[in-house]
Design goal:
The protein has 958 residues and is mainly β. It has four helices and 66 strands. It folds into seven domains: 278 residues, no CATH class; 91 residues, no CATH class; 102 residues, Immunoglobulins (Immunoglobulin-like, Sandwich), CATH 2.60.40; 84 residues, Immunoglobulin-like; 106 residues, Immunoglobulins (Immunoglobulin-like, Sandwich), CATH 2.60.40; 114 residues, Immunoglobulin-like (Sandwich), CATH 2.60.40.10; 101 residues, Immunoglobulin-like.
Amino acid sequence: MSMLKRFFLCFALLFTFLLEAQATHIRAGEITAVRISQSGLRYRFTLTIYRDTEGVEFGQGGVFNFGQGRTIGPTLDALRAEAVDNVISEVNIGNNTSIITIQFDHTFDAPGVYVVSFTEQNRNTNIINLGGASSENLAFHVETAIRIQAGDGLNNTPILTIPPIDRACIGARFIHNAGAFDADGDSLAYKLVTPLQDRGVAIETYLPLDDPTISTISEGGAGGTLFEIDPITGDLTWDAPQFEGEYNVAFIVEEWRFSVLNNRYELIGFVTRDMQIVVEDCNNERPELEIPLDTCIEAGALLEAIVRGTDPDNNQVLIEAFGGVFDLNISPAEFVGLPDENPIPRFRDQPAESLFKWNTDISHVRTRPYEVQFKISDNPSDPDAPSFTDFERWNITVVAPAPTGLTGSIASSTSIQLNWDDYVGANFNPVMQVYRRVDSFDFDPENCNIGIPANSGYELIDELPINQTSFLDDSGIRPGVNYCYRIVAEFPLPSGGTSYASQEFCITIPLDIPAMTNVSVEETDETNGEIFVRWISPLEIDETLFPPPFRYELIRYDGFNSTANRTLVTSTTDTVFTDTGLNTSGQAYNYRVRFYDVDDNLIDSSSTASSVRLDAFGEVRSINLSWDADVPWSNQIQSDPYHLIYRNRTDAAASDVDNFVLIDSARVTIDGLRYLDDGSFNNTPLLDDREYCYFVTTRGGYGNPLIPSPLENNSQIICIQPNDDVPPEEPEIDTPGDEVIITGPDGLPLILLESENCDRLSVEPCAFANFTNTLSWTVNDVDNDISSFNVYFSETGSSDDFILVGSSRTNTFDHTGLSSIKGCYRIASVDRSGNESSLSDAICFDNCPNYELPNTFTPNGDNINDTFRAFDQPNGRCPRFVKSVAFQVFDRWGGQEIYSYNSSEDVEPNIFIDWDGTDKNGNVLPSGTYYYLATVTYDVLDQSIATEEFKNWVRIIR
């Protein structure tokens, strides 16, 4: 702070702390908005101003600006003339303060982001942190921003239900909450800002309340002054004021909405509150509130709760409640004093009790809880002493009722028919989500246990229109499995909301095929690994139609669920087999069984089941484990919810590498398929200089009494060092050996590979734009701890442009869905501790451009060859990867230009040219031969082929 500013502030403090403020005008205010048209862009803005009644009248020079060229003001008559119903309301609320409310309607011309503001001279005088006595020369300015955009739907700004003038006591922590409520259910965030005096003009003399010239104390006496706003709850805290007087601060309430299109939350507007805090000397203790615990309530139920207020000084207390629940159009909440249920807040003897009552409705359902702000104020016995206040917040989540009537039947050997009742909240257009798991999972869908619990094993299999009350599940249904279902109603954004889950329905199709039960890694090795495989014979098959004994063929594939490298492992009449000679260290495998009757007729096959794959992540003196398997049974069953964790080096010296000991178990129905080993099992922290090895035994089941449970299967053994900070080796991307070296945009060489995409273009239509670039690489895994690879991509090849586009657990990657072939890649190795290697050298693919022009056209109006147009014949003769075309036509001597076109200068560029045989003035040219020059610019990395010139003759035949 400058010496001049400090001198000015100290001078102001000396004369204002001891004098009663001589207010000039505006103390506080904000602007809120409501969209009042369902189809148009018409909004109603409400300006709320808190005025010092000892100052000048409101509206002297005030200007309301809609941010789109329209302004109202600067006279009171002008404001009133444009106000809704020509009304400006003013209500005196005491303490030399009145509330002024005025509304304006405005229709925006088009979507966009608009900042709506109000500016008026002047603020009231002697605002200490705005320059003291000179604050009366500062304009008051507030802004509200709204975004109008396709896809946003209707949007209203948050409303602020708690007044912006609040009182504080010297030396006591001050808390203010605006009681913001968003009717659309948007997510709100809070941020301190500098008060403004005009659009984009901050008040230079503003000092935050923790500035040492404003305050250096706190209520507890420890540390300096705290001045902050909680970005989530909106609690504005000043701990603590040091001097009497008036202070102004400003903050914004942002509203964020999830964009399904962009898959992220986006800022869609904000409201600025400029508020005033009046600090007084209080010889008083803070009153206290007792409020209910945060809760959930099912829509349609009555919520009642007691709020109790007490005061250590035995003063009377006033209990007030604020929040959007009291302003709802349908069934708003009530807050009444007890015992007489008087709705008018008043001071009462302590302890005082008030009753909150809310008969909730299905229209109240939303994801975010409703916030109710309770405020308690005491009434000191000294009539000149200021009141002391406190705030408490209560969160209420209104949950949609559970869908009812879920039942079902077997439709076929591979499908299940489900049915349920019409949903009570169908008018609000939720979707019905259908969840499925193997085996029953019991939980109570109530008491805030909304939707489907995490780690319950239920998987979302479909989302249906709310008016659909049946569903045929034919996705992967196999005999012998106990399939269990629940349905949940999910309400649309922006409000959102998830219902309680329905009651569970389970059904089992008779076991008339083999059922896989074990794919267990018995030996971990890169070349000599072993997997134990077991299956159950088809116990409920019709042996008259399919006579035994059965013969089984065991088929193996690479990966969790792929069909790569199909291998017939064995043909047997047994139901167990140990598969050997495998790379169980480096990859997972999956198996299925095909079975034949006594006459060697193929009957059917089992579902596939994979081995368990264990991953590890090294942290400081701890190891994070996670595992997975793709199996037809459930590995998260309530009858056996624990998976077993085994580890070596459990001896005191952590030197025994050969013996694995059961160290703990993971409750997977609660925590999922993960476990953190921090040495808690024997109170011995892991050492950073040792490599620890693990395997996990999973437990699962089909939920079918005919199939034994639990089914136990081992993962491979994995080894990792805690706190490993050594990155792995960088990969080297495979090249075929016939690459081309070009110079990149930053002057560095780039390796350009031939793309298989170019060969296929000869058979693809002209509009084809769905390419895949395929990469493969090698790496020297020195420490045998590489867990994955990160793939980086740059469209330009510049070293500054590479961004992460994917990751791979194997040494290959397909970059799919590309509209262009052009681009460069670099790969990084990632080890199990999250260390990333340096990036590989870049390799690039380039577009393969093509452009061809004819030599004759016939502009005679028969719609056949009427324009001079680049070839767009199917496949080979299409224009490919063209950025722009510059085209000139000259007379037959090549001297005078008679026509030109440049697609890069056209609002709607046409790379095909489509010259109609007229000159630059639109005059029809006669039949004859003309000379042309076409310069085509291609979208390529290789700048040596970035442009191509076409010089030739074209004949017009009419």
